[in-house]
Amino acid sequence: MAFALARSLRTGETVYCGWCALGAPVIAEWTAREGFKAVNIDQQHGQWDMAATFAAIAALSHAGAAPVVRIPLGDFAVASRVLDAGAEAIIAPMINSAADARAFVAATKYPPLGERSWGPNRALALQGRASTPEYLREANEGTLTLAMIETKAALANVEAIAATPGLDALFIGPYDLAIALSDGAAQDITAPAVDQAIDAICAAAKKAGKIPGIYCKDAARALAMKKRGFRFLAVGSDLGFLKDGIAAQLSPLGR
């Protein structure tokens, strides 16, 4: 179904998202086929070039999962390109102010919300659309913008960021947030200051009628964050799953 991720989240569902860094479309596809409703292609810290990203978006669409892309820092041109290629959600790192949020929205939403340029030819094909007006009519609601809150500045401006028209969600990067709040001394995502910030960001999202999201290192963390009100939860990563699987097989062998 076209824009299934937005429909699910806007009706109050909780969505668990796979996370792929390794730059292999087939891994993204199998992450979807094993049951994740959405899968993120991490261009910020992962090994994804544009060709692999486009291939993964198509593979995820065929596997029945919503393609999500985390763009490189400040590269809103990439956001427009991957939306045209069929991505259904964009995660933008280091959105530290309302001005950053407005620039993000400008690149990802059509007028009157933003300034996205027309050209979603691959998205139309992947969604099986014969009518371009239908896509245009639905795209602003159907494609999601997730602003990462992960710095002291973002935390101070979180209500103004959340209030930005066209911004759909706040997404917490807990490790960078922990580094920022400890002034670079630690990466403890359970520290009291980080825990308080997580609740404050979730509250700001809800107050503004936006979707609260967060990255979680594993399923246990995701379930705990769900109980605290988060509804878009990234869980683990392909690299982590691979390392854990290898370790589980080698351990009985004494390796």
Question: Would you spell out the secondary-structure blueprint of this structure?
Answer:
Layout: H1 4-10, E1 15-20, H2 25-33, E2 38-42, H3 50-63, E3 66-70, H4 76-84, E4 89-92, H5 98-108, H6 121-126, H7 132-142, E5 144-149, H8 152-156, H9 158-162, E6 169-172, H10 174-181, H11 192-207, E7 211-216, H12 219-227, E8 232-235, H13 238-250
Parallel strand pairs: 1-2, 1-8, 2-3, 3-4, 4-5, 5-6, 6-7, 7-8
Helix pairs in contact: 2-3, 4-5
Kindly estimate the percentage of residues that lie in beta strands according to DSSP.
Answer: 15-25%
Say which CATH homologous superfamily is assigned: Phosphoenolpyruvate-binding domains
Rg from Cα = 18 Å
Fraction of residues in helix: 40-55%
- Give the N-to-C terminal Cα separation: 46 Å
Would you state the CATH class?
Alpha Beta
Total beta-strand segments: 8
Secondary-structure class: alpha/beta
Helix segment tally: 13
Give an overview in words:
The chain is of the alpha/beta class and 255 residues long. It has a single domain (4-253), classed as Alpha-Beta Barrel (TIM Barrel), CATH 3.20.20.60. The protein contains 13 helices and eight strands. Strands 1-2-3-4-5-6-7-8 form an eight-stranded parallel beta barrel, surrounded by eight helices. The model has no long low-confidence stretch (mean pLDDT 97).
Features:
13 helices, 255 residues, eight-stranded parallel barrel, TIM Barrel, 16% strand, alpha/beta
Give a quick precis of the structure.
Helix content is 48%, strand content 16%. With 255 residues, the protein is α/β, with parallel strands linked by helices.
